[in-house]
Amino acid sequence: MDFQFSIIRKLSIHFALCIFICLVFLNAGMSFAKTPHDKEKDKIHPGQESTPETHHKNHDKSPIKDQDKDLEDFFEDDIKEIPLEGDSGELDDFFSDDKIRPDINETLDSQPSSDKTSYFFNGNIKLKTGYRFNYDSQGNRTTDHSGLSDTKAEIDLEFGSKVFESWDLFISGSAFYNLAYEFNGRNNYTEKFLEENEKELELDKLFIRGSLNKVLDIKIGRQIVVWGKSDNIRVTDILNPLDLREPGMTDIEDLRLPVFMTRFDYYFFNLSLSAFVIHEHRSHKTPVFGSSYFYFPNALPDESDISTRFENTEFALSLSGTFPGFDISFYLADIYDDSSYLNADNQKLNQRISMAGLAANKVHGNFLYKAEIAFFNDIRLSAFPQNGVPVENLQDYSRADFLVGIEYSGFKDTSLSFEMADKWMTNYDYGAQNSGINEHMVQYALRVSRTFLHEVLDLTILTSLYGKSADDGGFIRTQGTYDLSDEISITLGAIFYKSGSHALLRKIGENDAIFSSITYGF
After folding, report:
1. Is residue 420 packed enough to be buried (19+ CB in 10 Å), middle (13-18) or exposed (0-12)?
2. CA distances (Å), 329 to each of 65, 219, 227, 406, in order?
């Protein structure tokens, strides 16, 4: 019965894609009824997000044309299944924050009119330092991470160009090198840790997009798609994996990992219908053996690569609408889980899952109310030890994720937000318990932001706590950024982790750190 239901569900997603294609052709005649000016009015600018201040300005426009905008997503959650002597969980979406890079439309629109059909090239150089002051170097550790943890040089580059009148090309890349490991002695670190954390050269986004007609756009290449309304907790935002190597310390531009996909956006009335054909699978980048965030005694196996054969292609659909006073979006996805699991043969695999979800915003005065719900099926958990022998967990699990949130902006130069989510394993059983998974995974998120000195100084306090009684671990991060000039800014901050009963957060409290950075943008 479960097998039949899975087949029916996957067929329904493919059927919905066929309906989407039919709608495009059946309604192509609508294209001559809309002028380019009308179409432009029907879009929310990719950099805009519904807030009490902006929502009323946007409520007469149709849904976001480009939902691959990098929202301010200052921490993430989800759990990754990794068994360890009866204690296992998911090393999935922890926490993140920071401001975003604009997308190509925003950047091109900000150029002088004479340059709008040309190109732009910009980027930033950052020098970052970090110091851990609460690390137990005498504990059961493979590596001593106390003291200096970062002396990192980073560079991010972006290039965008108008290829034709209605076609854009966008390329971005990044690189970093951390000298702290040279100063501390490279022999003190595991080979796997150095491979993942000492240096990196990455081609991030690479895509071309344009209009096929006045109501249909296409975008092909490595890109980011942001689903959902929450700024703090991931519920429906599942299409891109995350960089989780430094929980709580990762900037948003380094958090979501671009994935190669083909995207179609179709506009009708005040709605947008988007279809995604995802050709590339990437899993989360997680802490490895030897990392201060990795507390298992042994290294985990490398993840099995998913082939790029057509039968492994992932599919997703979204329908979004903006109406007076509120936004709403519906989602369907048939994808591979970005969180891997271990089978009884100690292989690290990714399970094909499906999701149906909904997200909505509602504005009332200075308040913005948010809600998200998502239903997941076919989740596979890791094998669990029984009498010293790993036992395969063959059950496919279902999960219902709920989120509610509120944001208030009635105070001058201040924004307050609070969100709460519950991830409920609906068919929880003995196998899930032995795999180290809680029936309910509750998370609370609180953010306070304020600007000073005419927006020259920005102060943010982020808090994320797990567990019904907030006793499963979490963190609090305080950060201040001061703009010395239009090009140079300085950041100072501290992060305090809270250990808890959750397997992956039990000793995370030893990673308390202070950090600083200086950034030059050009």
Report:
1. middle
2. 13, 20, 8, 18
Does residue 124 sit in helix, strand or coil? Answer: strand
Between CA 233 and CA 336 the distance in angstroms is: 20
Q: Which helix (H) or strand (E) holds 458?
A: strand 457-466
Backbone φ and ψ of 323, nearest 5°: -125, 165
Q: Are 65 and 43 in contact (CB under 8 A)?
A: yes
d(CA 457, CA 264): 40
CB 148 within 8 A of CB 178: no
Percent of all residues in the chain with a pLDDT value above 70, rounded to a whole number: 75
Calculate the alpha carbon distances from 354 to 1, 13, 189, 198, 315 in Å: 16, 9, 39, 36, 10
Q: How many CB atoms lie within 10 A of CB 281?
A: 20
Query: What is the Cα–Cα distance from 411 to 367, expressed in whole angstroms?
Result: 11
* pLDDT above 90 for 368: yes
The gap between the terminal CA atoms of the chain, to the nearest Å, is 58
Residue type, 292: S
* Torsion-angle region of 198 (φ positive above 0: left; ψ -120 to 50: alpha; else: beta): alpha
- C-alpha to C-alpha distance for 502 and 470, rounded to whole angstroms: 11
Which residue type does 39 have? K
Contact 459, 479 (CB under 8 A): yes
498 token code pair: 């809270």
Which tens digit of pLDDT belongs to each residue from 327-339? 999 999 999 999 9
The model's pTM: 0.78
- Eight-state DSSP code of residue 30: G
Three-state SS sequence of 292-330: CCCCCCCCCCCECCCCCCHHHCEEEEEEEEEECCEEEEE
Calpha distance 453→187 (Å, rounded): 46
Which residues, listed in sequence order, are joined to residue 256 by a DSSP beta bridge?
Answer: 242
Give one word for 470, left, alpha or beta, with left for phi > 0 and alpha for psi -120 to 50.
left
| H helix count then E strand count, the chain | 7, 22
Q: Which amino acid is at 441?
A: M
Pairing outcome for strands 341-342 and 367-380: unpaired
Neighbours of 306 (CB within 10 A): 16
Average pLDDT over residues 358-371: 96
Element (H, E) at 195: helix 191-197
As a whole number of angstroms, the distance between CA 519 and CA 484 comes to 10
- At 186-245, the pLDDT tens digits run 999 999 999 999 999 999 999 999 999 999 999 999 999 999 999 889 999 999 999 988
Pairing of strands 457-466, 474-483: antiparallel
CA-nearest of 340, 360, 292 to 497 is 292
How many whole angstroms separate alpha carbon 248 and alpha carbon 162? Answer: 36
What confidence score (pLDDT) does residue 83 get?
Answer: 39
Mean pLDDT of 5-24: 50
SS3 content of the chain, % helix, strand, coil (to 5): 15, 45, 40
